[in-house]
Amino acid sequence: MDISPTEGDVFRVLFVCTGNTCRSPMAEVIARRQAAALGWTQVEFRSAGVGAFEGSEASDGALRTAAAHGLDLSHHTAMPITETDARRADLILVMSPSHLMRLVELGAGDRAALLTSYAGGHPDDAREVSIPDPIGGSDEEYEDTFRLLETLIERVLARLEPVLAR
Fold first, then answer.
1. CA dihedral 18, 21, 22, 24 (to 10 degrees)
2. Choosing from 33, 64, 133, 144, which is the catalytic residue?
3. What is the spatial distance between Cα 164 and Cα 54, in angstroms, rounded to a whole number?
4. How high is the pLDDT of residue 121?
5. pLDDT digits (tens, 9 = 90+) for 42-56
6. Catalytic: 22?
7. Is 17 a catalytic residue?
8. Which CATH number is 11-164's, of 3.90.1280.10, 3.40.190.150, 3.40.50.2300, 1.10.10.60?
9. Does the annotation count 2 as an active-site position?
């Protein structure tokens, strides 16, 4: 998988889930904070959903969980994934295999991977698993998903360091 910027000097990472109200927006703000802590300025993180209703807000659970970790999702509005979004992204990290199939349909399969797989360093690893969707779940389920995302994104950024630490 080629992980160099597609245009200009900004490296664009797109997180994709189903509704763009829980997992991918949490991943986006986690990644922004972690990249800022590393001093990375030439990276952009965004999120979208394969079945998102444009303009929907982050779920209450995602809002509460992010806030508990000092992150703000109050201005987040859901966006459906588009062919343009997929084309602009240098790396697309998805939460489940069904999301990956949608990216293949959009012609971006060569730049898309399951977050769990990419974080493990083996995009074709047979042990790939989905990120649990906490929508409608308890605060504990949101917290578990948030912590999993933190760990995986830390690994992703370590893998991207040769490209982004400049």
1. 60
2. 133
3. 30
4. 45
5. 999 999 999 999 999
6. no
7. yes
8. 3.40.50.2300
9. no
